[in-house]
Amino acid sequence: MADLLGGKGANLAEMTRLGLPVPPGFTITTEACRSYLSTGREPATLREEIGDHLAALERRMGRRLGRGADPLLVSVRSGARFSMPGMMETVLDVGLSDTSVRALAGQAGDDRFAWDSYRRLIQMFGRTVLGIDGSHFDAELEAARREEGVEADASLPAVRLRALVEEFKRITRVHGGRDFPQDPREQLTLAVDAVFDSWNTDRARRYRRQEHIPDDLGTAVSVCAMVFGNLGPDSGTGVAFTRDPATGRTGVYGDYLRNAQGEDVVAGYRNTVPLAELERIDPGSHRRLTEIMATLERHYLDLCDIEFTIERGTLWMLQTRVGKRTAAAAFRIAADLAEQEVIDDDEALRRVDGSQLAQLMFPHFDPAHRGEPVARGVPASPGAAVGAAVFDSARAAARAARGERVVLVRRETNPDDLDGMLAAEGVLTSRGGKTSHAAVVARGMGRTCVCGAEGIVVDADARRATVPGGGVIEEGDVLSVDGTDGSVHLGEVPVVPSTVVEYFENGGTPTGADPTTGEDPDDGRDDALVRAVDRLMRHADRRRVLGVRANADTGRDARRAARFGAAGVGLCRTEHMFLGERRRLVERLVLAVTDREREEVLAELLPLQRADFTELLAAMDGMPVTVRLLDPPLHEFLPDITELSVRVARAGDEGDDSRDHRLLRAVRRLHEQNPMLGLRGVRLGLVVPGLFAMQVRAVAEAAADRRAAGGDPRPEIMVPLVAAARELEIVREEAERVLAEVAARRGSVPTVPVGTMIELPRAALTAGEIAGAADFFSFGTNDLTQTVWGFSRDDVEGSFFAGYLERGVFPVSPFETIDAAGVGTLVRTAARTGRATSPDLGLGVCGEHGGDPASVRFFHEAGLDYVSCSPFRVPVARLEAGRAAV
Length: 886
Ligand code: ADP
Ligand code: MG
Ligand code: MG
Hints:
Low-confidence stretches: none
Number of domains: 4
Strand order of the largest sheet: 11-21-20-13-14-15-16-12
Radius of gyration: 33 Å
Bound molecules: adenosine-5'-diphosphate, magnesium ion
């Protein structure tokens, strides 16, 4: 019932049902909160209902809230459907007043404890309910410690705590505008409203935006009878995990703090001891706790984390939930539980995801050498970056140009920082979350990024920053930034390659246990993790119906893709084969005036292209290789117009027919305002006679050569940027003529399917017609996104995107995850109408989305045959395709 009771409330109820020792209480639903937040008032019957449930609780406990010789105290706790750790408020010790504090002291036989609890209540109540700045209270506490000459609050004597209570009441009056309420019922209702309100604090909103948690769910409020971990050395409080949430290793794991209340452990400002110590301190409670943890795992069938408190030797459970974990732990735990047949492999597959796998594939810092971070921020773009700290972009670019590795450190970034970000190994900011400019752009460029490291104070003018604890980072100091967990370290932390990538490079053969000893070699590799990944990858491959191919332009990339499990090349971008040395040939092609000149150049290009394709077909023998005919605007191959103009002007009018002159005329002729929407793709093929024919011939001859060498080549020809069926028909006729001619000459040539990219809205809308001339479609979702939204990826990510994300125009960049409502609708429509024309039309996707977890699921659901992505993303796509099918 987590929707209604929040995760915390639902799990408290569940633990109670399991017969575990949970302090009694009740939960106010998220429905009440939603009503309160929308009307600004408590629902009409809420107060009465709270009264009834409180009365029941009082009867059950045989005590009354804040009254009598043994007063009942309660905690008022937030808890939403999705865990938002530390984002909302909780008020403890509600029910204490000037009278009940004395009763509590008498009951507990401990003055110190009672006054300590009371000062905690006034402090928490003041901050949470009355919105008083916590530093007022903190300053007084600090002064008290100083005057008493003690380090810890726990060492303050009762008289001092009593004086603090008076001081805190004064702060409440001065800064909260009212007296601390002495009526326990009033404390309770005010606390409940404050917890409702805490749903909408800035930090809670920011957190939800980052985690994509809807804003309208509201929080539940759990009211629980207080139990006390601060009743002396036989009391205490702790947090624990049923397995190690960092590595996934089996065995309980946790921290315990003697003589403390819950908040103290979570806040981490007092010294905790490992759970194993509890076994020595209180063996009975330790045993009970271990049993309960086993019960919880058996019940939830997963890693659980818990909060517990021991009150004078009695153990109480205060919270549990299926715990958060690192990517490595997620794989390890899922595979272990499947191995132990606690869950089946389908369920194991559901418990991991592609972005976790992607994380495991980045190189990472050597855990043995990383020590404590100096700061932490939001892990915004994964990776491990090491470099010299630089505080402005121009200097970052300059230092990088000298071959230095740099980390760009900014308060926040803006479009002027693009050069610096591009030059840097990593980006670190002190402001902003996962949708900040720095985060969006860094992810787009594949740069490591940690943002919102709030403890760091950046002074760009002074070229330095300070870190929490007072350390200073000067320009040039080496930083190590971990984009996977958000930690920032001073100095160079050694980087180790990913064991998981090594496994994929081995073609998916797990390394590991020594066959004689059965032990994993102690070589820094996480073999257990690799075995877990292997198990889940195999299962994903068994389940998935979506094929996975790779985008590869070279034999090297294709071979790697094959090792990573790609079943072919879904996109070979031939334009990449025209760069470097061959640029000159393209220049000549553009300059060619006569047919003869042009044919000469094409004849020179032919053997080069043939060799490219031969290598690619060899690397993917027996698998499809989709060759896209030349796509980009021709002028991309030509010299820069300004440079060329200068050169020509310098040369004066000597030889009007110089090469530069002719080149300049051609460059001018081909210059476009919007090259992205200009002469490219199929348009180019129609304008430059013989170009596409040469490419098709190269493909056909390469296939013939491969056959002659005993291979099994399966090339496919793909025509880019088609908008109208007729464009494709023209190219197809020409291609078929060439294919037939080569077949006649060479005898053994495989059938070469001819298909098209669907990457323009018009193509998607007339897909039924286009399918008449196509053997397959491949959705070019990058261009389709650009043309459907009408913005260019190269231009927008640095400018208004961060603002759009921030303001919720889209939850995630449409270049990262397919925009299902817009672009996705065109994909579905084209797939449907295309197949209506031609039932065995092949359907694939090439483009960045092919390796994006959420998009892969969409393509699976849209009924496509395969996705194609960069070789490195192939395992991610395989895993997600499997997940989409279970
Ligand atoms: P959060 O969601 O921030 O963890 P909680 O509602 O769990 O907030 O409460 C904060 C701390 O107070 C936790 O450590 C919790 O265990 C402790 N706590 C909450 N309710 C009680 C209670 N009834 N008795 C003792 N400690 C409590
Ligand atoms: Mg908690
Ligand atoms: Mg394109």
